[in-house]
Amino acid sequence: MKLILVKKLIVFISIVFSIVYSEVVYRVPIEGVIDLGLPPYIKRVIKEAESSNIDAIIFEINTFGGRVDAATQIKDAILSSEVQTIAFINRRAISAGALISLSCEKVFMTGGGLIGAATAVDMSGKKGSEKVISFMREEMASTAEQRGRNKKIARGMVDEELSFTHLILDQDSILVQDIEGRKEGKLISLTTDQALKYQIADGTAENIDSVLDSLGYKDVQIVEKGENWSEDIVRFLTNPVVASLLTTFGFLGILFELQSPGWGIPGFVGLTCLILSLSASYIAQLATMYDLLFVFAGLGTILLEVLVIPGFGIIGVCGFGLLMYGLYLLLLPDIPVGEEIVGQAMDGFFIGLVGSVIGLVFLARLMIKTKFWKQLTSPDIQDKADGFSNSFGWESYRGKEGVADTDLHPSGWIRVADKRVFVVSEGDFIEKGAEIIVLSVDGNRIVVRELKK
Questions:
Q1: Is pLDDT at 104 greater than 90 in this prediction?
Q2: Domain at 17-227: CATH code
């Protein structure tokens, strides 16, 4: 009942606003680093604006750039939008921010603003390969061309090896002398005045109200569109630090589980971390179905080896190899990349793998010293200093026959002399219900062998 009243109230408020305001505009901030969590948020806002017949979307941009693959996803979404898109560059739109700005129908800049310097660099700040530069250069040029802006300037923002002396604007050839980046060896970055002069920007404004006034919007309702909780989670999970930790803990859990019989807490923790990482990567379009196919095939094969097939052999090794290759593919963006990006992905992959192995060793050493581990593995252990013997009274079981109460691979439970006892086989897999014989008893360690008929 309360939910129905809330919905009616929302509808009433919407009707009131539609009467007071003849036009509605969405404001969408693009600030900080452009990461893979941003495209789903932008796409959702654009889709919502189209379905609600919103008049325009203003992207308030102030960024030094970020991931090229994220920027291209945003650019594609803006170019295909049925709603008018406006870029309001509030101070700067550098690198990936320049590509997003050029994709909008209208571009406005604050006084003292800056746009450009969009060459592709790797994580260490080095210039990308020619393959990557060529991709970004033509991506900028095609975007500028679609919006009726100068392609030479757009290309010059990416490639410093280009140079020119004249530009064609309004079918006139104009001598260019005030753009430092027109020279070979210099990237193009435009101030607000230069962007206006060379028709990269459509106007200047100090706030959103001024932008709307310049475009003729009157009695406008400005709706702030922020990220919802699910988009916040995706941005958090795709953060490079968080993604690395998830992958590391995923490795740790799987490796630790392979060292112990059955399937327990480490396996579930590792699997959960990998699922979180893969889900966020898929939503952010970093992971494709092709990549996920390798990962899930590897996980399925490992589970098959651990839970069904005795021991750990070629099936488990193949599954582990498939899992590693799939996780490596997740580190490569879905855009053309050069050898340095592939090398960085390989370095990051091996660092995560080595870190997982080292962490596994330290974790194992720490765990076996804890009281929890001792209680888990030997809950009835008693110290001689307390006057107890290490004998559990199971010596009499030596040579007796019994039945496997669970699968033994290689440890499990048996029934012998009307008692249910935890044992370990000699290393062979013994199925539930098989007849066994007790070979030896050492404290609480009982070793058994299957009786062959």
A1: yes
A2: 3.90.226.10
CA dist 188 and 222 (Å) reads: 34
For residue 189 the two structure tokens come to 């970055």
CATH fold of the domain at 384-450: OB fold (Dihydrolipoamide Acetyltransferase, E2P) (2.40.50)
User: pTM for this one?
Assistant: 0.60
SS3 282: helix
174 Cβ contact partners less than 8 Å away, ≥ 6 residues apart: 166, 167, 168
Report whether pLDDT(269) > 90.
Answer: no
Give Cα 445 distance to the centre of its chain.
45
DSSP states of 394-405 as a string? -GGGTT-EEEES
Measure the CA angle with vertex 102, ends 203 and 125; round to 5°: 120
pLDDT, the chain, mean: 76
**pLDDT tens digits for 180-190?**
877 887 889 99
Q: What is the pLDDT of residues 156-175, one digit of tens each?
A: 898 888 888 888 787 788 88
CATH 3.90.226.10 in the chain is located at 17-227
Question: Where in the chain are all domains bearing CATH 2.40.50.140?
Answer: 384-450
Locate tokens 């010596």: which residue? 395
For residues 52 and 25, the answer to whether their CB atoms sit within 8 Å is no
Q: With 50 as the cut, is the pLDDT of residue 338 above it?
A: no
User: Looking at beta carbons, which pairs linking 29-33 to residues 24 or more positions away fall under 8 Å?
Assistant: 29/59, 29/60, 29/226, 30/59, 30/60, 30/61, 30/62, 30/63, 30/97, 30/100, 31/60, 31/61, 31/62, 31/63, 32/63, 33/63, 33/64, 33/65, 33/66
For residues 171 and 327, give the distance between their C-alpha atoms in angstroms, rounded to a whole number: 52
> Is the pLDDT assigned to residue 121 strictly greater than 80?
no
